[in-house]
Every structure is written in C-alpha cells, then in structure tokens.
Batch of 2 targets.
Target 1
Amino acid sequence: MSKLVIVGTIAFDAIETPFGKTDKILGGAATFIGLAASQFNTDAALVSIVGGDFPESYLNLLRSKNLNLDGVEIVPDGKTFFWSGKYHLDMNSRDTLVTELNTLADFNPVVPQEYRDAKIVMLGNLHPMVQLSVIQQMSTRPDLVILDTMNFWMDSALDDLMTVIKEIDVITINDEEARQLTGEYSLVVAARKIRAMGPKYVVIKKGEHGALLFNNEEIFFAPALPLEEVFDPTGAGDTFAGGFAGYLAQAQEINFDVMKQAVIYGSCLASFCVEKFGTERMQDLPKEEIKQRLEQFKKLTHFKI
Amino acid sequence: MSKLVIVGTIAFDAIETPFGKTDKILGGAATFIGLAASQFNTDAALVSIVGGDFPESYLNLLRSKNLNLDGVEIVPDGKTFFWSGKYHLDMNSRDTLVTELNTLADFNPVVPQEYRDAKIVMLGNLHPMVQLSVIQQMSTRPDLVILDTMNFWMDSALDDLMTVIKEIDVITINDEEARQLTGEYSLVVAARKIRAMGPKYVVIKKGEHGALLFNNEEIFFAPALPLEEVFDPTGAGDTFAGGFAGYLAQAQEINFDVMKQAVIYGSCLASFCVEKFGTERMQDLPKEEIKQRLEQFKKLTHFKI
C-alpha cells in the first residue's frame, strides 16, 4: 500500500450556522484530510499536535479509520488548537470569532521514520516554513507534494510561501487567493503564473462554484454538486484535498486523466462533508453512497454532441 | 425549417470596460439572441422596434444572417432604445450610466402572420405584459416558450411576471434573480419553487460560473469556458439564450438530453460573445470554430471513473 503523509492541524471547532450551533467538536485540516483519504486503499499517517485536553475518543476515531497517529504529538499540559466561526446566511462567507493557537504555536512536525519515503505528501494549511520543514524531512523525493495555503500567509509570510511553492508539485488554492497571489483576475492567467512559481498542477477551488485543475495548457473543471442545503461548509476544502490526495496515493500512475479523477473524488467527498456539522458526515460514510454520488457527478456534467 | 420567433430589444449600446470604450454600437437582446440563433438551421424572425436613427447597415447585417425582420417596427421620427454601461474591474458587475427607452416605451410587438405557428418562441427581457401579448398572438401553442427576465420586473411588476411565468415552458434567469424570486438561497430549492410557478425547465445562469438546467429531479451543469480574458460581457446572457433557443428550434425532439446539448451550445456561443466588444465576435463566427470549442467543453468536463 502506498504511503501518504498528511500534515496539518487537529483542532476543536465551535461552529455557528443559520441551522444551528455546536460546542467544541472535532475539527482541523489534518482531521478532515485524513477522514477523506481514509476512503482509499492507502497507508496514511497524520502529522500534527494536540494538547492533553484532546479526548482519547477522537484519537480512537482517527485510528479506527486506519490513520497512523505516530506523528501526532500530544502535549500533556498544553491545550489543543481552537477555532470558532460563524457563517453568514449565504454560507459563502464567515467571521472568525476565536482563534486560540495553543500548542499549535510551537508545532514542529516530525514525520515518523517509516513514512519518510511516502509516495504522496499532503501539506495542509500551516506556516509555509513549517510546510517546508516536512518536505526536507523526506528521505526520498515523494511522487507528489501537494500544498494547501491561504491568503493569511500571502499577507504575513509571502517570501516564505514563495520558497515552499518552488518545492511542490500541486497547489490547492481558492479563487480569491489565486487572484491575490498573482494580481490577475483571469483564473487561466493566474494559474499560468502560479505554475511558473513551481507547481506543475494548480487546483483552484471555487467553493459552491466547483474547482478547476490546470496543467500546461490543459484545463479540467469539476462542479460542486448542487445541494438542497449546505448545512456546514467547515472542512469542505480540506475534505476535497483529502479525497484528491487519497485517490492519487492509491493510483497506479499520475497523469492528467488520473488528476481529473482525483478532483472529482475530492469534489464528491466534499459534497458529503457539508451535509452535517463538522466531521459528522465523514465519520461513517459508506462506499456505496460515494459510488452513487460519483454517478451523479457524471450525469451532472456529461453530454453527447 | 422550424420557425423561431425572437422578441426583444434592438438597441444602441455604449460600453466601457477596463479594456476600452465604444461609441454607440449595435446591441439589444433580440440582436444577440438572433445572431446566436442564426448559427442553426432554423427560420428565425425578430420582433422588435427601432427609430429612424437606426442604420440600414445594421438591419442589413441582421438580414444577411437570414433573420426575418418583418416584425421589426421602424418609427421614422423616433429614436432607438439606448443603453450605456460601465463594467467594474472584475467584469462581473456593472453600472448603468444611461437608459433611454425612446421608441421602446411604446413597443407593442406584432408577430408576423406567417410566424404565428412557430415551434419556438424566445421572449427576451421585456415587460412581462409585453411578453404575454406575444404568447397570446400565437395561432398554435408553440412546442416551447422560453422566457428571459430580470430583477427589475420582480421589483416593479411582480404580479405581471407571475402571470406570464405560468404560461411558459422554460425560464432563463440568473442566480441572484432566482434567489430573489423565491426567497431561497439553495438553487436546487429555488429551481423547484420556480417550476411550481409554471415552467417545466429552469435554466439558472451564473455568468463566469456557468449555468444549471433543472427539470423534475434532473440537473445538468454547463461550465463557462475559462478564458484568458473577458473583454466585454455585454450580450453574453442573450447569446446564451439565442444558442439555446436556436439549437432547440432545429432539434428533432425536445427531451432532457437535447436540452443539455442546447445549454452547452448556449454556453459555447456565449464564450465567443465576450471575446470582443458588443456583437463584433458574433457577426462572423465560422462553424468550424464553434465545433472546436464544443470539443473544448467536452474535454473540460468529461472524465472516466
């Protein structure tokens, strides 16, 4: 089984949407990425940090999905990263109410020895220098290093971000961030400029408007599934990344057709994620439902002319 | 050849975009719809009104595309409808600078006798009562009545709009308007509510984010082609409608698969429209280029899983 290293936050989230409100529940980029990737036949390890307040039951949930947690540092007298946010009525924008970095402030990810030859490395959104340190720990060059980032690092650590971007193969970024990073409004032009910074593949996430995959002059578009109701968008982008990375980890080879499939799997899993609060929908998602939804994606987009 | 009746404005447009500025050029919904529909093997008639200031050369351009102009009233001492707008940097929003209704204020469309048995009627954006009067002139019920409208009529003539919506088969509307008309944020729910108002098919246009087609529980999504540069979005929605209606006019039968193809043709033609100012790109568009672009749409969206 191919190895997949997933680096990112494991967190407590408290979420408020027009549909309801949660107390502190399981969240974090690595959590969502891991749960999505666990749908595929791959040997995935999470690299993250939590505090002594993090419930054993959450760790057991992740373990039950065959996610290796040797790289998850537990700081007994520390507190787990906490994020709280409130979504606006349109669910496309949100206000961050609380960000407590806690143990995350001192996060120095250590990739377990037996995962340093992993085929795929998925770097969740973190400080670019933390992301870079993971790449440098690998004993062999992974087939693919995938990086997720956000505008916060463009504002506060652009030089570092540009340094790590040089070293990666795939970047996942949202449309506004792609525009901010390049100063280009056209996503076609923005993707070309980002590819010139390093990554061969650029995935631009447009939330409810789908995702675009760029490579050389090839473009692929995956819609988001039109849903009756988006209950909670938290983790949708990370779930997309997890489905994308998980699919690629178990693929026989990497080419544009396989990347297209990975984008569809990512979109498919993200469409489940938003149906319930936090990780609820992803904790117990039958393969049969995924298969049915992939068919829905096909019906939604395919035509004969 | 199947007959297609196109009702809407023929206008002068003056457009300002970040790329440049035009004097009064050829514009109007019926113009864009007609030019797009003229790409198909159909007998199309425009029903509209212009003033004595409207150049014979523009009329000849439309005639040269085999568009019947018997239903275009020319008011010798009147002035042609004039619209002027300025697009913002993102090209998704615009300010209307000038709207001079002129002859349009007294527009009473008269469908020429020989087109009153048309297979398809495409009602461009106009006062709902003007749209209704066209339906009432038809001697036989058309296979499809397609209606385009906008938020302006929801604000100022909602009851009239609801009256005409009852009588139609297909509505094309943008996402914000669908939300305004139904009070629903989810486009899936909004489309269902609109179908309950009358039309069997609902097409929701999302501009650069593509278009959705709804019928019963079936959904189809056509992306907008990602472009290097959107030069001028004026007329893109009408060009979409014209491609959609033109394709349906020459189709052997109407079913969901054919509707899907019509949406793709509409999206394809709209992707050309935005490449130049006004109608420039649509005035002389080789069939070979359309064919190539349809292949691009296929490559953009099709995948194997």
Target 2
Amino acid sequence: MEGLGRKRWVIAEGYLPEDDRRLPRPLASHEAACILNASDREARVRIRIYFADREPAGPYERIIPPRRTLHLRFDDLQDPPIPRGTDYSSVIESDVPVVVQHTRLDARRSELALLSTVAFPVD
Amino acid sequence: MEGLGRKRWVIAEGYLPEDDRRLPRPLASHEAACILNASDREARVRIRIYFADREPAGPYERIIPPRRTLHLRFDDLQDPPIPRGTDYSSVIESDVPVVVQHTRLDARRSELALLSTVAFPVD
Amino acid sequence: MEGLGRKRWVIAEGYLPEDDRRLPRPLASHEAACILNASDREARVRIRIYFADREPAGPYERIIPPRRTLHLRFDDLQDPPIPRGTDYSSVIESDVPVVVQHTRLDARRSELALLSTVAFPVD
Amino acid sequence: MEGLGRKRWVIAEGYLPEDDRRLPRPLASHEAACILNASDREARVRIRIYFADREPAGPYERIIPPRRTLHLRFDDLQDPPIPRGTDYSSVIESDVPVVVQHTRLDARRSELALLSTVAFPVD
C-alpha cells in the first residue's frame, strides 16, 4: 500500500479557546488534526503555524507509523506552544500521502460544542 | 444510473465518546458514515478501521440496495466492536460509486453537540 | 457571469430530528441546503430524496433568480413531506452551475447544536 | 513561496443570528471566513455578499500581509453591514492563492454551538 491521500494540507481555521483547564483532558477545549497514514511506510509529518500578526512558527515534527492514525492536539505542540485566544492557520506536510481532518471541541461554556471538516489538500 | 460519487473514501477523524448508554438510541453518543448508493446496482461496502497503536480491524461488510442510503453507526460494528474513548480513522471501499458523509453526535454533557463533513475521496 | 460551481451535488447525511415544533421557526430543528446561484440566469433546481427502505421521492423543484441565494429547508418540502426521525440523503441538480452547502440545526435538547459541510459535487 | 490554494471561493451558507450583543466579542454570535495567505506576497481580497431577495452587496476589500492569516468576521463588514437574521452567501476572490474556511459560532441560547467547513473553490 503506497498510501492514501495527499502530501500537503491546509487548515485555515485555528483557535484554541481560553479555558480554565480543570476539565478532564478529553473534555477540555482543544483543536486536533486527525491524520491517517494508511501506507506501509512511516510518515514524517511537519506542521507550520501561521498567525495574524507575526511570522510563522515551526515546523513541528511528528512520526506516524505505518497503518496508524495520529490525532494530533494543537495544544500539545511545544517550543513554542500556540497561545490560547489567538487566531491561527496551519500547513501540514508529509513525505507519504495522508488524509487530514480538523476538529475543535469547545468547552468554554458548561456544555460542549464541536466542529469538524476535512482539511484542504494543496499538493 | 451507474452511480454517483467515488469508490474509496477516508474519514480521518474517529472517536466514540464514552457514555453511560442510558439515552434513547438516536440521542446517545455515536458516529455515523452516511453512504448514498444512487445507482441501480447493489453496493458491497467494506470498512476498515485504523488505530493509533495497533493493527487495523476489519474489513466489516455491508450491502446497500440500489437507490438506497445507509447511515452506518460505527458503534454497531461487531467482531470486534470499536472501543469507546479511542482515536480511530476509517477507510470505506465500495464496488459501485457512492458518496460518504461523516457525522458525530456527542452527548457526554447534558446537551448534545454535532459535527459533520464529507469524507475525503481517494480513488 | 456564467455561474460558479457545479450542476449536480450530493448530501449523503439527512435527518430531521423529531421535535415538538413549538419553537420559533429559526430555532426549531431543521436541515437546509444553502444554494448560491451567482450566474446572471435563473436556475431551475431539482431535489431528489433517497431513503433507507423505500424508493426515492421527488423531484421537488425550486427556481433561484439570478444573483440570489436560496436557503432551502428540507422540512418545507411538500407532496410528500420528508418524515421526521428518518435517515435520508439528497441529490440536487441545477441547470446552471451553483454551490451547495448543507446545514442542520438540532434543538431536541434545550440548547441547540449545529453541523455544516459543503455538499459533494458529482457532475 | 507562490501561495497555497485557489483564487476564488464560495461559502453558500451565511446567517448572522440575532443576538442581544452583550456577550464578550469572542463569545457573541458571529460568522467568520478564515483565510490563509501562505505566499510571500500581499493578498488583496474582495468579498461579495449575495442575498435571497436583493442585489449583491460589496465588494468589501481586505489586505492580508505575506505569511499571515485573517479571520474575517462577517459582522465586521461595514458600508453596508450585513443585516442579522438574514440568509446570505459569499464569494471571496484573491489575487494570490489562498485557502478559505468558514465558521459560525451561535450563542442565541445560553450555550454555544459551532459549525465549520472548507469553502468551495471555483477558480
């Protein structure tokens, strides 16, 4: 299996809601890039973050083993972390074809809200 | 009618929220792949599930009659079932062209939350 | 302007939640196909509804004037209406190129939930 | 970098919920077009708004610097503003390739609801 999908994807929406962070991790506000590597090769993934008012951050790197999915939480990126309450976009590049879907869980209020969309392929 | 759509689709996001399961079935947390077979032929559909930390499961098989839709709930898959609280992705293959849309209803809190997106075609 | 978009679209997800119908119309549970006709010609739109267990209904017809949008609510279709609490899919055809986006507002609980995705073009 | 994406996009869904406007700005009901300009050139963006029952408004213009994202709120457009409680669609054109994602936050009830989808590219 050579892999399914594309090698470069854009998520134009990005926003980590400010949050008191006392909720259990799956229920705390977060955004994720869900990335499927259906190939039989390891995928090396590089994420670059764009902002409204400063130069891009990254690239951040992740490895996805063959035939595995990675649900990457943007609030897990470090050095530097993405600030909360700040508009951003992301560009995700992989050396093997992958499929990327974007999700946000918003828990600023007592109930939660969700959004999701497939990212836009640009290679 | 030869069918509308494509023969292979990817849903990169997958997550069945943990749930006490006492809610009526339409309101309990679930994910679905809504699949339209607009053709005049029966569609044989095979679903394969990818995880973060183990080999893929499936294929699970379903038949969709001509000119019918199937709203397949992922929590209905058996042998083996998909564990709750676990990240996954899915690849859906059909022998006639179909269209696939992904939906999650989340009822972990007292109110419900929804997400939906068209899956990504890869044939 | 010859029009923007495509002439045939599929929305694989469809579900009108059962509802006590006492809410103001914008807040009552509904699904909509938002259709933009950016052309300088009238668009004749035909909608066909597919079910899990019976033959398709329709076509339902609507006219969209030049340079106008139509946010068509599926609960407004008549002869026959789409039953609530029932899985369906829809195929939308237009004689000029249009763009179609799908939305559901769900008010079964006291709070509302939303989903939206661009439909899948198949011409 | 010549830019990522496409030069013309459609968002068929548009609706600014009526709102008492006393909420903090990030939590008040709004729709946004999130636009990434990953190129090394300034992007000149023009937005045109289509309605159900009158001629289109705009174009509204915005500049996005190189390597920057703009999360444009539709309730910030002026001369004329988009009326609340009114169906609309939008067409977004840029002189360099960009990627556009659409988001709505709905705060008509006490809890919030979210939707998002990548816009439809038409160039």
